[in-house]
Amino acid sequence: MKDFSTLQVENDHDGVCWIKFNRPQKYNAVSFRMYDELYLALELADGDPQTKLIVFTGNGRYFTSGNDQNNITDPESMDRRNAFRKLVDILIEIKKPLIALVNGPAVGMGVTMLVHFDLVFASDAATFSTPFTNLGLCAEGTSSYMFPRIMGYSKAAEMLMFNRKFSAQELLDCGFVSRVFPHSLFEAQSKALIKEYAQLGSRALVEGKALIRYKEFRETLHRVNERESRVLDDLYTSPEAMEAVMKFFSRKSKL
Prior knowledge:
6-stranded mixed sheet
């Protein structure tokens, strides 16, 4: 097993690879280092013949608070602004079932990445928000294509354009979330289902996913990912985005 500093990666005896965001003191914000570790963890899990399922969750109160805003001041930030695009391209091509256990708040890319998961289980304490326009930014991770198809145009617009925060129950009602569990029972009940799913035939799971996420569909997602990233590249240096960044660091300096 590789050593990870921002993730906790474990393979259990049932053939489940558990990938946990592991920066609880930073609300599991995704740094450039975590991106690198996510690429590697996914590559290893998808290529491991013993792994049937890949399950994501977060350590601590949050699933993930999204991109670490300190990435902006990283010397590599201009070269690595497409770090999330690369992660999405990898997620699109994962052959094995992906399951997310959203244990708490999910923000930004922590929400948009979920459209590439086959199941999303959520605690009733979880919330989902994509405050992109507050930051002078726009949809990412193929959310401009997938959100309207999953939850309908109106709710997608509320989330992606108007920064509405949704509850787990609201996203269950519109089909974005698969199941919601009481927070006190979330870990036990979701793990029981994971254990049950791990008894299913691995080849049948892979082939079933390939039929649902067929080649032409994946090619469309890659094109959407590229188009969104191109727009984001333009927005990153816009006056609106720069002002939002300055406000963020101004608030942080006063804490």
